[in-house]
Amino acid sequence: MLKIVLETVGLTKRFGNVTPLDGIDMQVREGEWVAIMGPSGSGKTTMLNILSCLDTLSEGQYILDGIDTSKVSEKERVVVRREKIGLVFQQFHLVPYLTALENVMLAQYYHGMIDRDDAIEVLNRVGLSHRYDHLPSQLSGGEQQRVCIARALINQPAIILADEPTGNLDEANEQIILDFFKELHAEGRTIVLVTHNPELAEFADRTVRLHHGKVVQHAA
Amino acid sequence: MFLLMLRQSFFRGRRRKLLATSTIILAASLITALMTISIDVGDKMSREMKSYGANLNLVPKSENLPLEIGGVDYNPLKGEVFLEEQDLGKMKEIFWHNNIAGYAPFLKVPAKLEGKGGAAVPIIGTYFSRLVKFAGNEEFRTGVREINPFWRVKGNWPDDSKTDEVLAGATLARKLGLKVGDRLTVRYALAPTQPEAVTVAGILSTGGAEESALVAPLALAQRIYGHTGKVQSVSVSALTVPEDRLSRKARHGADALDSLEYDRWYCTAYVSSIAHQLEEAIPSAAARPIWQVAASEGTVVNKIQLLMVVVTIAAFIASGLGISSLMVTTIMERSREIGLMKALGAADWEVYLLFLSESALVGLIGGLIGCGAGALLAQLIGLSIFGATVSFHLIVIPVNVVISILIALAGSLVPSRLITRLFPAEVLHGRK
């Protein structure tokens, strides 16, 4: 049996009277690809924010790679974030004044160690060997997303958390990104992907469906 | 990586950075100008005050015994004891010799005119504008024309090297109907001596006792008096620094100071320490500071400096607030970038460091440019107020750059707290 990388027990988030997440129980094992789906307002983004340690939970537990993040301080949560998680955003969120290579190296810098060769290698892997000296504004949407993926991979995180990674891309680029995720999955990477795109979820091992902050379906 | 980010991000948002730098430049130039003038204002004021006459009086020590009752001096030795004229050069050998801007010896002779009813006419002997030599054959022009620029002469100033030309005080000239070019014969009033023939070279207005006397070259007065090489008193014009707590304490005598205070006092150009050194140089003399001049100089300088401090603080606060509002805009505009850094695992202090370093850089550049602009401004102010350029002290540069960086940092400190309150979840994909 593969080890559990991510586990939530009764995960609840409240904003005043609103409860966007209500008692979520979920497990993700090493090498698994899980898609979290649901309509707008179902709590997908709140879920991703908590899973990526960008937000705290109100009740329950969230254990990531053996660390109970609900019990750690803000400072330790920062450490968990940089040591364990690789983030892929819908909006790419690249630093506009840094080149593709520098954007990847930025993640290395906050992780503690810069290795230019490693960063170049990862960019080569995502097919940007000829573009790493370009600023984000000089790259297409698909290329920017590839830089974002390279940045998520560079520190060998325990888990890759992706938020609608193809949401801002055309069909051709969507396919390229999808192929990357398949490749990463094949390598044994653990991936949690939030999407409302059924085509993307189709390739996941499992789909967790949320509705009004509750899990309504775990489907293989 | 940090330096790379700093370099790259520094050139973003140029319009805002330019505004921030301009704010600092304005403040820095104002502070530089005020600081430069503030440092120099003591000297400048001191020179200005020199036009009001001497600030030290040198008299023979024995005459210095206080014997004044009801404003009348009963000292029996007054005018009867002398200083040696040849000792006066020693004044230019003291520690603060460069600060001795000028001096004029005086010898007052009771005399009377031959003819004109034998009117009693005091003759005051002095230097008008004489080149004197002192240690090492150095030359120095001094006399009443140098230390009392407010003395006015209708006609010509007598030549110090001639002994037959005098100035007639305006009151005396009116009384006796003297005019320029008149020939007079004078003699010592208290004993029969050889009469001297003199010519009135000019009519003198001073607003003082000299207006009722004939003012003659010192050598002539000495000859009439029969006291060659003697003077009764010397007015000294010294460039001094304004009075402060230490110099006021020293007024009770050098013994009132401990050794450290004494050293500091001795090596500062206070009117009292210069007086002390003059007495050391000429042991037979007592130096009396003219306190009204010294004290008013101190008061004026202190008030100017206080005003400058207030303006500097105002500039500091105003530019700090300017920077502050620019920083708030910057942080708001770059909130995504900040959120991203945090999401990638940057600690708050790492983000602070980037933004504060940018501010410090703005402070550094603004401070350096401001120093240059301020130096020019100081010259303009110096020329328009004192009619002379202001000397620029290099110490102003580092001090001003540090102040500029502090302004930039202080202005950024409060807004940068926004960084802590910025949640990556909110700026990257919204909380809900």
TrEMBL record, chain A:
SMART domains named among the record's database cross-references: AAA
InterPro entries xrefs: AAA+_ATPase, ABC_transporter-like_ATP-bd, ABC_transporter-like_CS, ABC_transpr_LolD-like, MacB-like_ATP-bd, P-loop_NTPase
GO MF annotation list: ATP binding; ATP hydrolysis activity; transmembrane transporter activity
Keywords: ATP-binding, Nucleotide-binding, Transport
Claim: Ligase is one of the keywords in the record: no
ABC transporter domain span: 6-220
Alphabetized Pfam families for the sequence: ABC_tran
One Gene Ontology CC term in the entry: plasma membrane
Gene3D superfamilies reported for this sequence: P-loop containing nucleotide triphosphate hydrolases (3.40.50.300)
PANTHER family: ABC TRANSPORTER ABCH.1, IMPORT ATP-BINDING PROTEIN
Membership in a protein family: Belongs to the ABC transporter superfamily. Macrolide exporter (TC 3.A.1.122) family.
This protein's name: GTPase
Source organism per UniProt: Geomonas limicola
Automatic annotation (TrEMBL), chain B:
Subcellular location: Cell membrane
The keyword Transmembrane is assigned to this record: yes
Location, primary (coarse class): membrane
Membrane topology listed for this record: Multi-pass membrane protein
Alphabetic keyword roster: Cell membrane, Membrane, Transmembrane, Transmembrane helix
Domain MacB-like periplasmic core intervals: 18-236
Residue span, ABC3 transporter permease C-terminal domain: 310-421
Similarity-based family: Belongs to the ABC-4 integral membrane protein family.
The protein's name in its UniProt record: ABC transporter permease
